[in-house]
């Protein structure tokens, strides 16, 4: 069961995860702009959000695998843009795209994450079909030994 107090709605289009301290855009790129994103378009989008100082910040980025996994929860059933089940924390509005771009690239491939099954996999960067982007800022605090 998810902690109902884990995410704080900042009332500005962002949510702060009190467990990890990460700040997330409440809506993904599909929900905000109504379009699919290639790898380059996803990178351009976070550069643009930093240029306009979205919510007063200039450190928006694509999430890495560890960061996105903090939003993947098989106990929480959300719905994607087609009404299909995805395992994205339900504090985020339904209608998001199931697959999003992550940090990480190798040659012609970028990395995507799938909220339907929790898988991370490579995908050719020029692909735009059914990929979106969910920006994050901050870093997961490192655990220190007592």
Give a topology summary:
Layout (H helix, E strand, L loop, with lengths): L6 E3 L4 E4 L5 E3 L3 H5 L5 H13 L13 H5 L8 E2 L5 E2 L12 E8 L2 E6 L4 E6 L6 E2 L3 E2 L9
Parallel strand pairs: 6-9
Antiparallel strand pairs: 1-2, 2-3, 3-10, 4-5, 6-7, 7-8
CATH class reads: Alpha Beta
Which consecutive residue ranges, at least 5 long each, have pLDDT under 50? none
| Largest sheet data | 4 strands, antiparallel
Class of secondary structure makeup? alpha+beta
Q: End-to-end distance, in Å?
A: 28 Å
CATH topology, by name, is: Mannose-Binding Protein A, Chain A
Task: Please name the CATH architecture.
Answer: Roll
Spatial strand sequence of the major β-sheet: 1-2-3-10
Strand content: 25-35%
Question: Into which percent range does the helicity of residues fall?
Answer: 10-25%
Model description:
By secondary structure, the protein is of the alpha+beta class. The protein has a single domain (14-137), classed as Mannose-Binding Protein A, Chain A (Roll). Helices cover 16% and strands 26% of the residues. The protein contains three helices and ten strands; from the N terminus they run βββαααβββββββ. A four-stranded antiparallel β-sheet has the order 1-2-3-10, with no helix packed on it. The model has no long low-confidence stretch (mean pLDDT 91).
């Amino acid at each position: 069961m998810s902690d109902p107090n884990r995410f704080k709605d900042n009332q500005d289009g962002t949510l702060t995860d009190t467990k990890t301290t990460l700040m997330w855009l409440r809506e993904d790129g599909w929900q905000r702009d109504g379009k699919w994103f290639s790898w380059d378009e996803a990178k351009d989008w976070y550069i643009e959000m930093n240029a306009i100082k979205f919510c007063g910040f200039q450190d928006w980025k694509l999430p890495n695998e560890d960061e996105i996994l903090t939003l993947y929860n098989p106990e929480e059933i959300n719905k994607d843009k087609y009404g299909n089940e995805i395992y994205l924390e339900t504090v985020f509005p339904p209608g998001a795209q199931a697959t999003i771009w992550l940090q990480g690239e190798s040659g012609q491939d970028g990395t995507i994450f799938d909220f339907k099954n929790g898988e991370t996999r490579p995908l050719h960067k020029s692909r735009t079909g059914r990929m979106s982007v969910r920006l994050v800022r901050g870093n997961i605090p490192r655990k220190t030994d007592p």
